[in-house]
Amino acid sequence: MEVGMHTDSKSRAETGAESGPRGPGCSLRHFACEQNLLSRPDGSASFMQGVAEKSREQLIRNTCEAVVLGALHPRTSITVVLQVISDAGSLLACCLNAACMALVDAGVPMRALFCGVTCALDADGTLVLDPTAKQEKEARAVLTFALDSVERKLLMSTTKGLYSDAELQQCLAAAQTASQHVFRFYRESLQRRYSKS
Amino acid sequence: MAAGFKTVEPLEYYRRFLKENCRPDGRELGEFRTTTVNIGSISTADGSALVKLGNTTVICGVKAEFAAPPTDAPDKGYVVPNVDLPPLCSSKFRSGPPGEEAQVASQFIADVIENSQIIQKEDLCISPGKLAWVLYCDLICLDYDGNILDACTFALLAALKNVQLPEVTINEETALAEVNLKKKNYLNIRTHPVATSFAVFDDTLLIVDPTGEEEHLATGTLTIVMDEEGKLCCLHKPGGSGLTGAKLQDCMSRAVTRHKEVKKLMDEVIKSMKPK
User: Fold this and answer.
1) Which positions in chain A touch B249 (Cβ < 8 Å)?
2) Chain B closest-CA separation from residue A29 CA (Å)
3) Which terminus of chain B, N or C, has less C-beta within 10 A?
4) Which portions of the chain have biased composition (kind: Basic and acidic residues) (chain A) (predicted)?
5) Distance of CA B261 to CAs A192, B33, B216, Å?
């Protein structure tokens, strides 16, 4: 699979997209995405969201394996390389979003898109979506979910800290609402990219 | 003839059983395998436990040593878990550095210890800033037949309940630690986290306590670690097919009943042990 090289640096900058100011119901931080910024790999994307290794790799790999239609590419190895440029909290969710966008950019057939959302519960039970590094450290519990785009089902979850069953359902519902914003952003950024070329 | 069909079409063979709401080994979808636990069998360790979940066998040994407490938390000790999946437990593991599954299991057990606060790390401190206990918990799988995380969590809990630490006093004149081996105290175990694992089949069916073959055929796994108050220490779902909120609720209720079963079993065993 080869993707055409962009020799015009101006057009490369325009393939990026930035999300608008936060809507009233959504409390995710500002995010931006740029695609096809590396010429060598088949597909690439950088995802910037807001300003214990093998375990995280396994989580991301299993999430990708669940959505990628591997049967269409037998005897093929798909390598996803994630490089952390800066960590301002919600790292795993950001990695999942970057992995999904990179797979889309590479043209890998998938049965659904997926996105990562992080929730933090602080000491008095208040829910904070997309916490900063400071909020994560001070939280009683931090829950990270990966949700698919078709039915908002839970693909992956990893949690830290102690929380009750009711709080889990509350976080899951909030994450499902927030994932709609992320999927809408995916759609807009892809539309913007393909409408230029 | 059934053996031939099983080799050629393992998934279809399995589906025939699932249609009748049972599994090849005769269990129902929500039934666990026979669980047995043997506490305190290793005399050279400070605490030990052997757990068998059907054929899956995990042994946990806890050794306590002295160490200097960390500089950013001078009143805390350490609990260091390590899960080892040697080639003797299954043909899918090779000898050499720990594979991915062993590392993920070790990280999982470390998270459970951290999240559930099973031991208050301050209890392990002997002299703030100078001396603290470090508990090395080694979990070794002797036979791998699926559901390793449940067995490891149970073995760790049982072994920690069995640990006896000798009393240590710091001699003011020599500033050396004096260990009194005659006087030993049990650890203060604050919560009892119990893990319940599920395997997801064909995106819809959830079965409890998967065997090795079932794990191989499953499209996803889910592990819930719950303590006695119904609080969740860990919801570990490493990818795999999606689950709706309603299915998660069913899993929670099963995890609550499993916690009661495991706690009852462990209390019976500890009560039946003769005091040393």
Assistant:
1) 165, 169
2) 25
3) N
4) 1-15
5) 56, 12, 27
